[in-house]
Design a protein that fits this description.
By secondary structure, the protein is mainly alpha-helical. It contains three helices and no strands. The longest helix has 31 residues.
């Protein structure tokens, strides 16, 4: 739960302090976090199936551990996005 709150609230309101696009950056951050959460959950599930050779007849499960891993994947994407915005900012 703490990682989930950090991703959606912490990083979201960290991006609000941009001068030009404060609330737009919050919405863009939430959209990016949601997309990254879903994609990282699918990628982690896919690669677990490949590495452990459970590729046939085993769906990707949705568990608390899987959601925590997906939250860390979304946090990685948001940290990278923040670093790129900070480095390439025109201000």
């Amino acid at each position: 739960m703490d990682v989930h709150v950090m991703v959606y609230v912490g990083f979201g309101f960290l991006m609000v302090f941009l001068r030009a696009h404060s609330w737009t950056s919050l919405a863009f951050n939430w959209l990016t976090a949601s997309w990254a959460f879903l994609c990282s959950g699918l990628w982690i599930g896919f690669w677990e199936r490949v590495w452990h050779e459970h590729f046939e007849d085993h769906p990707i499960e949705l568990s608390i551990r899987q959601m925590c891993d997906a939250d860390f994947g979304a946090a990685t994407v948001l940290i990278t996005m923040g670093a790129l915005l900070g480095k390439t900012s025109p201000y």
